[in-house]
Known about the structure:
Strand content of chain A: 35-45%
Oligomer: heterodimer
Mean pLDDT of chain B: 83
Amino acid sequence: MRLVWSAAASLVLTTAAVAQSPTLTVTLQSNVPRVRSTGLLSDGKFVGLMRSGFPLRLHYRLELWHVRGSWFDEFIREVSWDVVARNDPLADDFVLIRQGGSVTRYATSEELSTALEIPYTVAMPPSGSQGQRFYFLARLEVTTLNDTDLQELSRWLSGDVGPAVSSGEGFGDALARGAQRVLVRLAGLPRQRLEARSTTIRIGDR
Amino acid sequence: MLAFLLVVTALQDTTIVIHPDSAAREARALPRLVAEEVIRFYNDSATTRLVGRTRLPRGNEWRGNVAVRNGPVFVGGRVQGTLVVINGDLAFEPGGEVTGDVIVVGGIVDSTGGKIAGEMRQYREPLLYRLYSEGDEIEYAPNLRRRLPSASARVSWGSADSRSSLTIATGGTFNRVEGLPIVFGPLFDWKLQQSFRLRIDALGVFRSAGDLSDKRSDLGYMFRSELRSGELRPVGLTLRAFDVVSPVEDWGLHSNEVGWSSFLFARDYRDYYLNKGWGARVFAQPERPIALGLEVRREWHTSVAVQDPWTVFRNSDAWRPNPPIDEGHYTTVTANASIDTRNDVDDPTAGWLVRATFENSRSSDVVPHAGVPPTLRDSIPTDGSYTFNRMFVDARHYARISPSGRIHLRLVGGGWMGGDPLPLQRRLSLGGPEPMPGEPFRVAACNGDFVDPAFTDSKLAACDRVLAFQTEYRGHLKLNWSYNPSSGRDEPPREEGSFFWLEGLDLVVFANAGQAWIVGDGPGQVPAGRIPRFASWLVDVGLGADWSGFGVYLAKAVTTGEHLRFTVRLEHRF
């Protein structure tokens, strides 16, 4: 009996430990990818930052790849989307802003964490001829934002926040850009980057 | 427990659907002209501005121009004027009407049941903007990473269809000839008709290093007028006149890296000449990744001597001399094409970038420099028949081979393609720090026979052709390095409170090979239809760490006895 309880306790502890660790997974349902992140707030670090006034930006990126017989696989397309989470100190709750501008409030960080674990189904099934193989790569980058970033990103949630073409960059631009890079790297704000790959899909398989 | 299981079950059944067509990837490049037009319209004092979900019920009316950001917008009534919707959809209800134009960016229009008297334009690409003037107005903000102000100032005014501005900004790369060029002057932009615009820039160039010669002042100019039709797939005509300092070779280090190196350490990795003339260019972008151009230029090239601009370090050191060129008036026809399928311009992980340029140039009054040895080139005709062809190709491929590993390949080269020998200002070289960081600067420059004092220590680039192949593997490292002086030896390292934080480093392992050479049948030369024997190629290998472009690299030349070389870069290698 003691052995059973020990095994059960180990299982619970192991499960808890796994749940504590931030993870990103890509699963497939009828070749349609589902991207899910779990445990992002489990260590309390990002919750503490939100309570200190630093909103979180979650930038998801999903890529579709074609498996080729040659050395390199072929990139087909990608889709990216953003989510912003922040703490509202006046209401003492957490605000989640999703792609398209929908705003949801959560009373506790646990509720916010649960909401962040809702998977995303991306309507990007691979298409190709019989026997071709594909897979998905997902990436999630969690970063903290300052107020300016938050304002900009909240406006941009209906679109891309990717870099724009910049040609003819002058000396001043380069000066600002270089200084910014150093500042961002030395700012001491944590980041989290997760990557995951789906199983391989073969067109025609069921 | 049962409730918990129900919650978990419900959670697993819940999902958020992402439609790629409406998400960011497809919506990456709203034409700049459209962005500026929409911003001007929004900021116009006569425009009524609304924010968020907006509805105009049947039987109601808005008078005047209306701009709504972050829609959606539902129109059941009548809009007497032009309606602009920024980053939102527009839907008409039965009886809805707009008497003017309708422009929607970052959304779609459902005009079923509605009536639009003017033109209707929609762009799926969102407008990237931010608020200013206490939220009353918006401005273009294309990139989070570029939000720091640049060293420039601009004052603009205008209406929704035209804009004028006065600008003062740094105009290029800090260099040993001009110092820091500063441009200033007006810019005009008019919308002549739908999707048909005229832009005129008339900028003066102030060279902080002083006069370039006794015949010129320290002022240059850049005048450009551009007539452009179309926004997503534009075609157009550009006329320009210029009096500028042009680089001899600009394909190695990035311009800002050359500028920083010059400004900090008095090491200028380019040569320059004074270029005065005019040009006419037609261009077209038949598909988004494809750009084509054809230009005719009439230029007057003259040598220019080194000035002595101030630098942060080594200010008392002498600059490398700027070598003289073959002066004269040149008429050049240039055709260029580019294909860009990269998934990201700043940090690509997939796709191709291919750029090719072919030019035919001729001169009736060229003055070949007398110090060029006959072993380098045949004599340049001075009877008015001088003509030469030159080509340059830069092809890059970016491929991900694992979730965190990438392979980048680059083939770059070009040079003389026919006709008379190249003038000095169109010749080439190969060496460090780019594309071969393991080799000295211009290690292959074909200048060994120069004895004329005018070229002493100038390290002139004198080769006819160059070819280089670069390859690198990039592996992303999850490196978390912290320094916390308060933590005890027995305590586990803590991330919170650490003073430094490093993450997101790319480990780069690279190899480069290439050679530059003189075309000909003489000793040490390579026939026109061949490339140098592989045994003579320069090869270097190395590794480095790239931190979003800021990188440090160690490289070792394989085929020569060079010592290990250390390089700091501000941009990705390619």
